[in-house]
Amino acid sequence: MLMRLDQELPPSSPTTVTATEDIAIAFPRQVLDRLPLAEAALWLWSYVLSPDFLDGVFQRHRGRSFEDVLSFPVLLDLIADALLQHDGRARPALQRARRDGTLPTKPRAVYGKLGRVPLELSLGLLEEATARLEDLLPPNSTAVELPASLAAMTTVLLDGKKIKGAAKRLLPVRGTPGKVYGGKLLAALIPARGLAVALAADPDGEANDCRLVPQVLPRARARIAGVRLWVADRQFCGFDQIAQFAAHGDHFLIRQTKKIQFHPDPARPARTGTDGRGRTVIERWGWLGAPTQKRRPYVRQITLIRPGEEEIVVVTDLLEAAVYPAEDLLAVYLARWGIERVFQQVTEVFHLQQLIGSTPRATVFQGAFCMLLYNLIQVVRAHVAVGRPAPCPAESLSSEQIFMDLRRQLIALSELVSPTEVASLFPPRVGRADVAGWLGALLERAWEPHWIKAVNKKPRPKAAPVKQSGAHTSVHKILEAHRRQKAVTEAPS
Q1: 100: closest CA among 81, 83, 86, 73?
Q2: What letter does residue 388 receive in the DSSP assignment?
Q3: Is the C-alpha dihedral spanning 32, 36, 40, 42 positive or negative?
Q4: Is residue 316 located within the same domain as residue 374?
Q5: Burial call 381-395: b when 16+ CB within 10 Å, e when fewer
Q6: What b/e readout covers 121-135, taking b as 16+ CB neighbours within 10 angstroms?
Q7: Which of 34, 200, 259, 362 is least surrounded, with the fewest CB atoms within 10 Å of its CB?
Q8: Considering 272, 306, 341, which residue would you say is the last residue of a domain?
Q9: What pTM does this model have?
């Protein structure tokens, strides 16, 4: 449904039925007029993921892959239908496409094509499509408010995601005990915009996140102009990673690992203060690493003492306490948990736990595509926030509730109107300014009060730890071991 918008737009406005319109167009237009959220998404996708754009992405990132009967835009359309209308299940989407006459090949070919999608194509799709989405954000919209002291730089959050729950369909994987992982993703998220702008990937879901840092930093820097502040968890607190973060005039804010000791500077005394909640904050300056470590950086250590909870200790190369207050830096680091919420929403809301393909490449492609769906909802949420009669912060609205209503409207549209009829209402090429204007008008009347996040004032009790089996491996490792064993077996004696 989303990718089949390739017909000329009637001369009327997007939602107005004129007396001269053919009755075959009038009914689909009336249906669409009652589904403003679905119409906004279709306008958004018709611009962001137009066939011409997708053909260009494929040519730039395809590597050795090729198109024959099944094109990249059609493959993307099928995966979108599976995720948006069928709870992440591909079979109903393929059956429906065959019924509608939009599947040019057998379903088995779709799974084969999905299993061979190059990693670079998955990453390029996310990054280039997100750049187009970013152009559609409302002026001066902010997803997360950050301290004014850091306004001169772009805060970027880093975190990794292993794609769990890979199906054991491939012959070498069948019968493998325990959990099986797909690929691994490392995402760079800009909290102020609410968008994941760059990804790095490894086919091995058990790969260490730090292995992907040299890949994701150049990709993110190509998408983010100016000075960047890299915010990351303690697993990225290594000499190699710190040097990479500080390159190109950038800065870092990382939680200190216990594996590397901090050595205070005797010439610079420590400072003690409190944050806005009355908790003790200790600032010290010194070196991270022993004197024998030649690459040890000079850093500012900030410790937040939380009674009854683990202390938070971060290190940064922003040494000027008067310019960059400790409370501001702690607030930015504590906002890092937002990227964990991103991964949770991508997994649960966009059905990443229901993997369509079973190869590492297929799982990475689905992960990148789910991240793109997340970014699309953030743009919709931003327009909803500024289009309300009383504008509100975007972070006060629930992305999950907006997506659920969008999905419901898309399903209703697909049941009442055929893809060809819907396509007749949209142009093959549409300008950014036109789409941005239509988004504002459509989403202003799409408002639903239940999109406001519920505020739970009662502290939630900590959940009891769940006992899980420790056995796990990745599809990539199993396939590599199978190839090696096959090579030994087939080798001439």
Answers
A1: 81
A2: S
A3: negative
A4: no
A5: bbbbbbbeeeeeebb
A6: bbbbbbbbbbebbbe
A7: 259
A8: 341
A9: 0.87
Instruction: Classify residue 356 by its DSSP letter.
Output: S
Q: What angle do CA 52, 431, 434 make, to 5 degrees?
A: 145
Structure tokens that stand for 33 in this block = 């007029």
C-alpha–C-alpha distance, residues 79 and 70, integer Å: 13
- Do 321 and 399 lie in one domain? The reply is no
Rounded to 10°, the helix 107-115/72-85 angle is: 100
Number of domains forming the structure of the chain: 2
- Residues 78 and 100 occupy one common structural domain: yes
> Rounded distance, CA 83 to CA 9, Å?
27
Q: What is the DSSP string of 449-491?
A: GGGBPP---SPPPPPPPPP----EEEHHHHHHHHHHHHHHHHS
User: CA 435 to CA 224: how far, in whole Å?
Assistant: 24
In angstroms, the Cα distances linking 224 to 188, 215, 217, 228, 318 are 10, 15, 10, 8, 20
Q: Is residue 6 part of a domain?
A: no
- Looking at the fold, whether 389 and 264 belong to one and the same domain comes out as no
CATH number at residue 247: 3.90.350.10
3-state SS class at 290: coil
Residues 6+ apart with CB under 8 A from 365: 79, 114, 117, 121, 122, 357
Token pair for residue 370?
């789910």
> To 10 degrees, what angle do helices 360-387 and 107-115 make?
90
Predicted confidence pLDDT, tens digits, the chain (493 residues): 554 444 333 333 454 444 445 555 688 888 988 999 999 888 888 888 888 899 999 999 998 888 888 889 889 988 988 888 888 888 888 888 888 888 888 888 899 999 999 999 999 999 999 999 999 998 878 888 899 999 999 999 999 999 988 888 899 999 888 889 999 999 999 999 999 999 999 999 999 999 999 999 999 999 999 999 999 999 999 999 999 999 999 999 999 999 999 999 999 999 999 988 899 999 999 999 988 888 899 999 999 999 888 999 999 999 999 999 999 999 999 888 766 677 777 777 777 778 888 999 999 999 999 899 999 999 999 988 887 777 788 888 888 899 899 889 988 988 888 877 887 777 766 788 888 888 888 888 888 888 998 776 565 555 555 555 567 888 898 888 888 888 877 777 6
**333 shares its domain with 368:** no
Q: Which long-range contacts (CB under 8 A, 24 or more apart) does 331-336 make?
A: 331/146, 331/147, 332/146, 332/147, 332/150, 332/155, 332/229, 332/231, 332/253, 333/231, 333/253, 333/255, 335/144, 335/146, 335/157, 335/191, 336/157, 336/159, 336/231, 336/232, 336/233
Containing structural domain, residue 228: 138-341
**Residue 274 and residue 408 share a domain:** no
Residues 186, 281, single domain; the answer is yes
Q: Please check whether residues 356 and 378 belong to one and the same domain.
A: yes
Domain closes at, from 302, 322, 341: 341
